[in-house]
């Protein structure tokens, strides 16, 4: 009897080792998540205040956040295609160009509307109020040169489209480093420029140029910047995307109630002085994270514009461009108009810690 008991115990001991080993192999350690974020040297993005206050590192629930600044939106699209970015803060036309070429990305929220005024050499050209129409203003630039960020950027698309509609033959100079456009205007290398904040107003405040067509007249509610996610990252980490969109929404509200915070962040990131930064926010204050019908309709106007310029070949639909379920959960509406957002200490705490 004793021998039988010993034999049974021996068999159980032999079996328990491999079984235990199998169980341990089936245990998957928690996946480590690193979020790779691309953004522009532009004040149209909540990422500046979140980066300065390390909001994502504290609140997003991931293991690491990697930031990389790109000079133009098309470079972020290229980073998406190469797997070098998961998230982008950028203008929508480069997103649309990427989608048209098969880059699997979607817009999940707005970050800013407008901010693409035409700035011309000071005291040289008449403005929209004086001449009465966009076409009349643009006709002054026949044979002249106008600077814009890289080819395919939203400013490049806007000015090329409007010049074409006006029948004006002007030279577009795509400048790789957009922050140099005010200086190029001052040096006489260009006659005007279209660029994102804060460089839009920098040339004006320094006396280099005047606003001849404000952004809301040049292309109303143009989708200056958006929060963009790769489809791969969204499918693998939907909870992280939802949290990111929520934090972005809070940061956008934070900017609208504390513009000085964005000015400070822009000063730290771009070296722009606070006076210029605050003037840029006041001049172009539409930071609501919820894309409303005006934003979406303006985006869809770029479908034909991009095709006419030869930048795309397909008739993209809103469903191909947008995935708004995350922002609609984070911000059901209504749209936050400039000047309507009140300070919220709870949001302040989330953003600043």
Which whole number gives the mean pLDDT? 92
**Helix coverage percent:** 40-55%
CATH topology of the largest domain: D-Maltodextrin-Binding Protein, domain 2
Largest sheet: 5 strands, mixed
Task: Figure out the total of helices.
Answer: 19
- How many domains make up the coordinates? 2
CATH superfamily of the largest domain: Periplasmic binding protein-like II
Sequence of secondary-structure elements = HEHHEHEHEEHHEHEHEHEHEHHHHHHHH
Q: What is the terminal-to-terminal distance?
A: 70 Å
Instruction: Tell me the fraction of residues in β-strands, as a range.
Output: 5-15%
* Rg computed from alpha carbons, rounded to a whole number of angstroms: 25 Å
Structural class: alpha/beta
Could you say which overall geometry the principal axes of the C-alpha atoms support? Answer: globular
Number of strands: 10
Structure notes:
The chain has helices spanning 2-26, 47-52, 55-59, 73-81, 92-100, 128-131, 134-139, 154-166, 181-186, 199-205, 215-218, 231-236, 238-257, 259-270, 274-283, 293-308, 318-321, 325-330, 345-352, and strands at 34-39, 64-69, 87-90, 105-112, 118-121, 145-148, 171-174, 192-194, 209-213, 225-230. The strands form two sheets. The chain has a five-stranded mixed beta sheet, sandwiched between helices. Strands 7-6-8-5-9 form a five-stranded mixed beta sheet, sandwiched between helices. Strand 6, helix 8 and strand 7 (171-174) form a beta-alpha-beta unit. The model is unreliable at 1-28 (pLDDT under 50). It has 353 residues and is α/β, with parallel strands linked by helices. It has two domains: 34-113 and 222-352, D-Maltodextrin-Binding Protein, domain 2 (3-Layer(aba) Sandwich), CATH 3.40.190.10; 118-218, Periplasmic binding protein-like II (D-Maltodextrin-Binding Protein, domain 2, 3-Layer(aba) Sandwich). The radius of gyration is 25 Å and the shape is globular.
């Amino acid at each position: 009897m004793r021998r039988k008991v010993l034999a049974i115990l021996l068999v159980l001991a032999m079996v328990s080792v491999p079984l235990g080993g199998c169980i341990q192999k089936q245990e998957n350690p928690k996946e480590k998540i690193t979020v790779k974020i691309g953004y522009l040297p532009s004040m149209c993005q909540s990422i500046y205040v979140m980066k300065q206050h390390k909001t994502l590192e504290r609140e997003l629930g991931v293991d690491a956040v990697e930031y990389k600044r790109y000079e133009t939106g098309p470079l972020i699209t290229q980073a998406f295609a190469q797997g070098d970015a998961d998230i982008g803060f950028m203008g929508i036309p480069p997103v649309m160009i990427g989608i048209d070429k098969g880059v699997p990305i979607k817009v999940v929220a707005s970050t800013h509307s407008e901010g693409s005024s035409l700035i011309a050499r000071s005291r040289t050209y008449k403005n929209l109020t004086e001449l009465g129409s966009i076409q009349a203003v643009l006709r002054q630039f026949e044979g002249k040169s106008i600077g814009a960020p890289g080819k395919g950027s939203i400013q490049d698309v806007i000015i090329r489209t409007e010049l074409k509609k006006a029948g004006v033959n002007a030279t577009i100079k795509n400048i790789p480093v957009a922050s140099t456009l005010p200086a190029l205007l001052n040096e006489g290398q260009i006659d005007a420029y279209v660029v994102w904040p804060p460089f839009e107003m920098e040339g004006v405040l320094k006396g280099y140029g005047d606003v001849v067509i404000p952004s809301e007249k040049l292309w109303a509610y143009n989708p200056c910047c958006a929060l963009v996610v790769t489809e791969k990252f969204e499918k693998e980490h939907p909870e992280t995307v939802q949290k990111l969109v929520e934090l972005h929404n809070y940061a956008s509200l934070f900017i609208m109630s504390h513009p000085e915070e964005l000015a400070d962040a822009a000063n730290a990131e771009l070296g722009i002085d606070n006076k210029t930064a605050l003037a840029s926010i006041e001049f172009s204050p539409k930071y609501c994270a919820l894309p409303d019908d005006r934003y979406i309709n303006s985006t869809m106007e770029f479908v034909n514009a991009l095709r006419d310029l030869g930048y795309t070949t397909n008739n993209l639909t809103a469903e191909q461009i947008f995935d708004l379920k995350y922002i609609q959960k984070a911000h059901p509406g209504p749209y936050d108009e400039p000047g309507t957002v009140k300070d919220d200490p709870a949001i302040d705490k989330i953003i600043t810690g």
